[in-house]
Design a protein that fits this description.
There is one protein chain. The chain is globular, with a radius of gyration of 18 Å. Helix 1 (10-21) crosses helix 4. The protein is 19% helix and 29% strand. The chain has helices spanning 10-21, 45-49, 65-73, 242-265, and strands spanning 2-6, 25-30, 51-54, 57-62, 77-81, 95-98, 115-119, 124-125, 131-133, 144-145, 148-149, 168-170, 175-179, 186-187, 192-196, 199-202, 207-212, 218-219, 224-229. The strands form four sheets. The chain has a nine-stranded mixed beta sheet with strand order 3-4-5-2-1-6-7-9-10, with helices on both faces.
């Protein structure tokens, strides 16, 4: 099966890793200037660097269907700068996964592919997609929803190590972003971790920098720009997260579930 994943951030990458290990072919799309903060485990980094490797799997930036085919033949994950997902009309996709996580539907339709799945709130199974995968941390994380919608966005980050909103680094002003700490670095409560012009963002806890936007990216005040992990496990910065793995399991279940339903109708 050939799967198109819209979005190539860390959660989308977790899905791609699991699907590739399950012998699916995967193509991904993203913006020209991706804003994933967990860049060390996001295939969107290939947009900036040409390639990105996560847990032994390599993604490569490509410019069209022919280059995408060559990357697939080489065992890689092609990533296209293609916000409108025009590649959907260039290759014979069996599955579409909307992993943009915009908290709303930005254009995905249930007719886009034989199986259409979506991550998180903003979608209704049976209306604009076949199935929705829950992305809210908690008992139902990763659950495949075949009727209805995911939990609405609360605006509050999930609890990790007893911290929620404190984990997030936010841009202190509009302008060009400048990291003051690197992914994998330990920081202390109150330590400056990023700057925009003369405005500085300080860490609200002691922990490990798990994510940080790239230098030079244009940001706006309050924009999510980084992530501090209070568990202080450096390896967590460079491997797919527990949340990503749970969501990826829901996507894999959805592909198999709806594929079998299609076969039963034949």
């Amino acid at each position: 099966m050939l799967v198109l994943i819209k979005g190539a951030g860390d959660l989308a990458t977790g899905v791609a890793v699991r699907l590739r290990r399950s012998h699916f072919q995967v193509v991904m799309t993203d913006l020209a200037r991706p804003t994933a903060v967990r860049r060390s485990v996001a295939f969107s980094q290939a947009v900036y660097d040409g390639t990105a490797t996560v847990e032994g799997l390599t993604a490569r930036r490509v410019s069209g269907a022919d280059e995408a085919r060559r990357a697939l033949e080489a065992g890689e994950v092609p990533v296209l700068v293609d916000p409108a997902a025009e590649i959907l009309h260039r290759l014979p996709f069996d599955v579409l996964v909307d992993a943009i996580l915009a908290k709303r539907n930005t254009g995905t339709r249930i007719t886009d592919a034989p199986t259409v799945l979506a991550l998180g709130p903003g979608f209704t199974a049976g209306v604009d997609c076949h199935g929705v995968v829950e992305t809210m941390r908690g008992h139902d994380l990763g659950r495949l929803i075949t009727d209805g919608a995911a939990v609405p966005n609360t605006g509050v980050p999930g609890d990790v190590g007893g911290f929620t909103a404190e984990r997030i680094i936010r841009a202190p002003a509009d302008g060009a972003f400048e990291p003051l700490a690197a992914i994998g670095e330990r920081v202390e409560l109150g330590q400056p971790v990023a700057r925009v012009g003369n405005a500085v963002a300080a860490s609200q806890l002691t922990g490990i920098v798990r994510g940080m936007l790239p230098a030079g990216l244009t940001v706006f005040a309050g924009m999510k720009a980084g992530d501090i992990d209070p568990r202080c496990e450096r390896r967590h910065c460079f491997t797919v997260s527990d949340k990503s793995r749970a969501i990826a399991g829901g996507v894999l279940e959805g592909i198999l579930f709806f594929s079998k339903k299609r076969l039963e109708k034949l």
